[in-house]
Design brief:
With about 400 residues, the chain is an alpha/beta fold. The chain has two domains: about 290 residues, 3-Layer(aba) Sandwich (Rossmann fold); about 80 residues, no CATH class. β6, α12 and β7 form a beta-alpha-beta unit. α12 packs antiparallel against α16. The protein is globular. The two termini are about 30 Å apart. The protein binds adenosine-5'-diphosphate (ADP) and magnesium ion. Magnesium ion binds next to α1.
Amino acid sequence: MRILPVSSGKGGVGKTTFALNFALALAKTHKTVLIDLDTGTSSLRNFLDIKVNKDLFHFLKKNCPLQECREILPAAMDPDRAFANFSFIASPQGFVHDIVNFSPAVKEKLIVGINGLQADYVVIDLKAGLDRNVLEFLPLSNSGIILFTPKLRAATHTAAEMAKAVLFRMLGIMLTSPLLQERFLQAASAPQALFFQRLRDFLESGSDSEAKNLDDFISEAAVQFPQDNFLRVLRYYVENYKVYYVLNQFNSMSESLENTIKPFVEEIFRIASAKVAFHNLGWVVEDEQVRRSTEAGVPYLVRRYYKKRQAAPLAHDFDAQLRDLFGVAQKKAPAERKKGLAHELSSQIDLLRKIYVCNAGKDPETNLDFIAARVRDISNNSVHQFGMKKIFSVQEFLERFQSRLV
Ligand SMILES: Nc1ncnc2c1ncn2[C@@H]1O[C@H](COP(=O)(O)OP(=O)(O)O)[C@@H](O)[C@H]1O
Ligand SMILES: [Mg+2]
């Protein structure tokens, strides 16, 4: 099972629309469960004109197993059972305070429930925003799928903040390790203790009197205590941090690059680290049919299928093409060498071109099939560590981290 949270930082970028149709695209080949964790707005159930019998309320308050709180598309909506592999878990319609605000008990129960689902893919529609309720459902090693759009300038900025917040949270948890605290704060020399404090403050506040970003801290540590395992682990986490993103309401390659991807990469380089690696999973064009589907309560992909009245296109058409273009499924991806912004941007342009070859002038359905194929490809590739197999608790993460440290 792979868990794929979709986050955006900002609302109104098409997160729910994307999460829904992306889950349906994955369901063409794999058992896929979509979970609405945007509790409070319950927008997913407004997008689906379906009677919901059980939702998260039944799981959280009535002890109904999460697997049994799934709803499927009714026969009237999907008579061919073309999307039989798709199911969704709705959030409650009413305002249940501890569910909307994710009390610690609710959160813990949800994580256990999600980890126990029987599915190939679990897609999570998260709340917008950067608070703990969003961050704690994101993987600790990468940020799931970040969605943003050239249509909304401010969305690029919050998407970059989102990517940074996930990385900083992970490193912040790392610094709470008792092993590190002991070594740096009590036993170690004064410069090390000072470094540790500054790094901790930086992860919380985003600013430091000397260092601009994590790269500066890493360089400093390399001078001050080059032999320390902590430096090695810190560097490892930063260098292996990957950002996976999708552009919604994509308009044109040049505009998307200049107005969206470039500022996104630049900002993360500036505020976090130039060692971060980016992976564009694809885009979804702006399309009136997508908007109309939302209003009609029938998902775009389902409407599209029944409009065409033909067998669902085999999504793995893309798989072979992807292997040719990216060559990631078979062999290991080459070690990523970083040469700064110009290099990163040129590799993003390169990626855009490759995606364009598959997608040029196409409709949202082709776009979504492409993204689903790419996600299947990447989640099978161990180099990527994309799509966590379970949501780790802080404790589990710390244990893994400490084992690297010794
Ligand atoms: N690719 C697209 N083309 C056209 N309209 C879109 C597209 N993606 C989203 N929309 C529309 O944008 C609006 C906001 O989408 P929504 O999924 O609710 O955003 P969010 O969940 O981020 O708040 C909806 O009316 C939706 O139909
Ligand atoms: Mg939404």
